[in-house]
């Protein structure tokens, strides 16, 4: 009986030892998993931080260009009203020069919509607007003689080469 | 530029406040719409004199709160049923009833902060958090308070930035998008770091307990072997 009891005690000890080792292994495995995920998350954090800083730098440069009245910052979301406001050109004059006579379009249509309604690329309209603003800056009298640009036969055949856009 | 954004912006110009309300409401339900960008643009349009800032803010906040509340009640009616089914059926091996119960207790304790921060810091998670809050049976009054507070910030922040920086709102949108990702990644790092430290401490504790157990065992074994040797009663069992 003593030998049997002794054996039972030893078996329970071995079992306890095995259980303890298993728990340690389980926790260790979880720790390794969490450390791996932490490394991935850290890489993600660093990348997103770098992206945020880059976006901030781009914003600063862009905002300076906007403040300087650089016409290359004209975007498809802008309405003629907002363009007149930002680039300090008379709105009526801009409407007339682009031949947008519909009052609803004058006030509310974005360049994207104006171009879509004429079924032409928005870049062409942006380019024409940029050109008009540059011309207006050189010679404000341009208002008196509107440029016939938005009529399909004139405006949409406006010469547009990559070189010209680059030069702008 | 986002594909749908030009149409939304034109709609905003054409139909004004009602379209803004509808767009924000649909976005708050969890359908992916670029509402932060729309709000930035609305702020910019307000700077050009097309909209009134105060009216924009109230329309945005009301639309956000209405959409969030709808999401919450959808979660409460259908999400809670799904959770109950998961809890009782046991068909998903990883989702044990204890896990769901634990998440419910945890959400009731800390869910307010999740609701508040997901309104403006990680706005992409807003729709999911609404449904989750409903499914976890989070009290609606508490949800409403955290939601309104969060959405006031969530609407004011892009509107103000759009109003102040007007033409550069697209760039501000890029910054907000990257920062939102950064905030999400940072929260995950903090959470995993905390879990890692807890596990590390537990491992150390377990190791020392294991060592103490072995030492005790060794001591007992040596004591019993010396007794056995002295009495010559037999061998140690293997």
**Shape annotation of chain A:** rod-shaped
The helix/strand order of chain A is: HHHHHHH
Q: Oligomeric form of this entry? A: heterodimer
Report the average pLDDT across residues of chain B: 83
Q: Supply the number of helical segments of chain B.
A: 8
Approximate shape of chain B = elongated
* Distance N to C terminus of chain A: 103 Å
Instruction: Give the fraction of residues assigned to helices of chain A.
Output: 55-70%
Strand content of chain A: under 5%
Radius of gyration of chain B: 28 Å
The residue fraction in helices of chain B comes out at over 70%
Low-pLDDT stretches of chain B: none
Descriptive notes:
The complex is a heterodimer of chains A (about 170) and B (about 240). In chain A, about 70% of the residues lie in helices and about 0% in strands. Chain A is built from seven helices and no strands. The C terminus of chain A is likely disordered. Chain B is about 80% helix and about 0% strand. Chain B is built from eight helices and no strands. Chain B is mainly α. The longest helix of chain B has about 60 residues. At the A-B interface, helix 1 and helix 2 of A face helix 1, helix 3 and helix 8 of B.
